[in-house]
Amino acid sequence: MNARPRTIVVIAPLRHPIREPHAGGLEATVWDRVRVLRDRGHRVLLCAVEGSQFQEDAPPEFRLPAVVWPDETEATDSTFPPGHLERAVPALEDALDYIRRNADTIDVVDNHSLHPQPLTWAERLGVPVVTTLHTPPLPRLVEAARAAADPGRFLAVSAYTAAEWREHGVGALVMPNAIDGNRWLLGPGGRDLVWFGRIVPEKGLHLAVQAARLTGRVLRIAGRVGDIPYFQQHIRPFLGDGADYLGPLGQPELARLVGGSACALITPLWEEPFGLVVAEAMATGTPVAAFDTGGIGEVAGTASAVRLVPMGDVEALAEAAEQLASDRGRHRQRRRQARAAAVARFSLDRRAAELETVFDLSATTFDLSATTARPGADAWV
Question: What are the residue boundaries of the Glycosyl transferase family domain, all occurrences included (predicted)?
Answer without folding.
Answer: 193-339
